[in-house]
Amino acid sequence: MGVIRVLPDDLVSKIAAGEVVERPSSVVKELVENAIDARSEDVLIEVRNGGKDFIQVTDDGEGMSGADAALALQRYATSKIRDIQDLSSILTFGFRGEALPSIASCSRFELATKPRDTLSGYLLRGEAGRVNEETETGMADGTRVTVRDLFFNLPARRKFLRSAETEFSHTFDEVLNFSLAFPAIRLRLIHNQKTVLSLDAAPDRESRLRALFGHNFPRTSVRIDYESSPVSVSGWLGHSESYTRQDTLFFVNDRRVRNRNLLHALYEAYRRYSKERDQLVIAFIDIVPTLVDVNIHPRKSEVRFANERSIHDILFRSVVEALERGSLGASLRPEPGTDLEEIRTLDNLPQLHNTYILVETRQGIVLVDQHAAHERVLIEHMEKQYLTMPAQRVLFPVTLELPPRLHDTLVRYRELIRQFGFGVEHFGGRTHILSSVPSLCVSHDPQAFLVEILEELSNLAKVHDPRRRLLEVIACKAAVKAGAVLTDGEKKKLIQDLYSCKEPDHCPHGRPTMLKLTLQELARRFGRS
Length: 529
Fold this sequence. Notes:
Strand content: 25-35%
Mean pLDDT: 83
Radius of gyration: 27 Å
Strand order of the largest sheet: 5-4-3-6-2-1-7-8
CATH topology of the largest domain: Heat Shock Protein 90
Low-confidence stretches: 242-246, 328-338
């Protein structure tokens, strides 16, 4: 008897699913791609427990008929291509006909869909690739795919999934990629019933960048704008206060891809023409579809160009041109809002609504937001003292019994938190002893202050620069609040410190710290000019 045998269909499905569905973020990626291909304008993604227990993607796209929905769950059934020639000019995200059947084969799934020209929708429900229920259902136009208990029938695969926070961070990254590539689509991401990301449709990518990275990013970055037919490159090189140099985002025909050739071109450009090393790079490469092959791997995250060397040189030249034009670095910092010498007096400064400080200058007036201003002062002060942050011992050490989520966050960032002046020791289980806090936080409840910081860090999908993020959180929590009454001495010192900052015009989150009105503008407003 021979030893070679044909594998049963259910085993083939599980093997194939492993190539497409690596983790919960793979499911989200495939489902959102389907939504985009269906011309959706509004996509809602909801996950629980990092996506291990529950994933649901709802769109307002074209929907499918009942017959098409049933076919979509069969392997290699697709509406995107018809013959071998179509593979050489792929214009959609999906085309292999593997995503839905792969997802269905390793989960308890539900597919509900309704075309725009029908009165009711169609529902299929099943598990492990088998459909157990087919029925009509009432629903809005579009498609809703629900995936429960991912890898429930593949315990070895489920065992290798990471923590809920780690798995969700991968999902967040996938949604971030889509949000950059498709600003016209409204995107919402919910984790454990809490909205993590909510982006309204934007008119262009620059508006979407402001929503994601702060209003300053497009202004303090350099545009890539280069064309060499049949290829064009656009994008941004710059600094983001929450993103580090590891963030190099390449998109080819709006598809986020990884390609060593592109990375080499980017690194060569920076090595030769710039000393900057901590920049966020976002590059969109548009190329004739026949010149790029996306059919390399089932996850479609890798591409191969017909002429790799030519694409390398085009990206290299586009980045070099942007670097030379922009002179990235100190010249990108916002100009200081006002010189301290321009202020007429720092005595008896009016405080409006216990929130804003009114400053008279030689050129007009400046209204300062006391909370945003103090945030800027504190973060620049802490940046200078990083690794030597003064700490103050609490009178009586505090015992903290943390919930699992905050305990995991503290374990992950323990060393960094200690560097900022928090004396935290593990006492066993989820119990920790807090013995000291940063000196600038001594007026706060030590336990509440640390818990607030852990909450902020744990709610982030992925902390790309933990040091910077912790600076932001401490500065925000320690800064004087709106509504706080300040003495004349406190107002004077705050204005002096603010105008001594390198970037006095905005807080760490990108909000303005001050609004300026010149005498000319005041005269115009009062009809005197």
